[in-house]
Write a sequence for this structure.
């Protein structure tokens, strides 16, 4: 079965650079979520989109922005990178806006290292 | 953690033994989900229990939910070395669509 695809899988950037992470949800899933997991930490919700509109916002820094495109894929744009942005970034997708009966399916993550 | 605590933080058992992990949360929820993560890798969904359910089984997994105590437990029976991983509970709030994760339990199963 198709899973959530994230690219790139690994990314190394310098401080103050920008990074773009991509997420391709499972086919027919219309909701996408982004989570950040720092070293030894639990995943923290950043932002979500439903039908290309932002549906919920968590602890996402102002330096980050995200969007969902017409084909439902999503991109997380990160600017002015800081050392503390080094983390594993997960994308998840689900097939409805209120996933009461559905779990969120997670991608393999993008490991971002900021030097 | 934003939502609550998981205990124990770490658990080491012998292969064949049962492992029990607990999770507590703070607010009303829609459902609670358990995930497994192998050393810095992706999150694998294990099981979802809805707020109106009290117990659920899936293979060697048994999950209970007590909404009056705002707590859940995950039992893995007849553990295997391959069960070694971090286990997270995550709650879906009553309003909203984001998952809030607990701090996780590191399980080590010795063969």
């Amino acid at each position: 079965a198709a899973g959530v695809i994230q690219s790139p899988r690994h990314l190394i950037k310098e401080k103050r650079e920008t990074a773009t992470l991509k997420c391709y949800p499972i086919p027919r899933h219309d909701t996408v979520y982004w989570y950040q997991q720092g070293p030894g930490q639990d995943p923290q919700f950043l932002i979500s989109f439903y039908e290309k509109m932002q549906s919920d916002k968590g602890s996402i820094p102002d330096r980050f922005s995200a969007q969902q495109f017409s084909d439902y894929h999503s991109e997380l744009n990160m600017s002015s990178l800081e050392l503390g942005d080094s983390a594993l970034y997960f994308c998840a997708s689900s097939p409805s806006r209120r996933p009461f009966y559905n779990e969120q399916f997670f991608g393999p993550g993008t490991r971002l290292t900021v030097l | 953690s934003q939502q609550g605590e998981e205990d124990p933080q770490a658990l080491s058992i012998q292969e064949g033994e049962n492992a029990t992990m607990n999770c507590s949360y703070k607010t009303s929820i829609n459902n609670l989900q358990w995930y497994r993560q192998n050393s810095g890798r992706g999150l694998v969904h294990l099981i979802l229990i809805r707020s109106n359910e009290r117990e659920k089984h899936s293979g060697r997994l048994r999950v209970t939910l007590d909404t009056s105590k705002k707590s859940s437990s995950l039992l893995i029976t007849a553990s295997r070395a391959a069960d070694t991983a971090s286990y997270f509970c995550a709650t879906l709030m009553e309003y909203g669509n984001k998952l809030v994760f607990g701090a996780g339990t590191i399980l080590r199963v010795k063969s």
